[in-house]
Amino acid sequence: MTPTDAAQDSQSRDPDQIEADIEATREDLGRTVDELTQRLDVKSQAKARVAATRERATARAQGVSEQARATWEDPQARGDAIQKVAPVLAAVAAVSVALGLVRRARS
After folding, report:
1. Tell me: the pLDDT tens digits for 23-75?
2. Is the pTM of this model over 0.70?
């Protein structure tokens, strides 16, 4: 729209319409400025991410805690859990011993 078109358009509208358009434009501009301010506020974004991460971690920890408690209270589940973990613990112990022996042999 050229300035001449805008001038002709504003002459054909009444002042109330023009004021309403100006007010709507101001509100639009205000929302845009607020949105840009939020996007550029790194500190508040970091705080929001920390809070979200904390909530997810808390929820996950509660879930794991409840699952562990249920497993511990059920003798069958406890036995199954021990059978699943025992080979892993044995492998970790074997690797640790092997690393210790290698280090001792090198020194």
Report:
1. 999 999 999 999 999 888 989 889 999 999 999 999 999 999 888 888 778 77
2. no
User: Residue 57 and residue 51: Cα distance in Å, rounded?
Assistant: 10
**3-state class of 74 per DSSP?**
coil
Count of positions (residues) in the chain: 107
**DSSP type of residue 1:** -
**Residue carrying the six token digits 């805008």:** 6
* Cβ proximity of 22 and 16 under 8 Å: no
User: What three-state secondary structure class fits 107?
Assistant: coil
**What phi, psi does 13 have (nearest 5°)?**
-105, 155
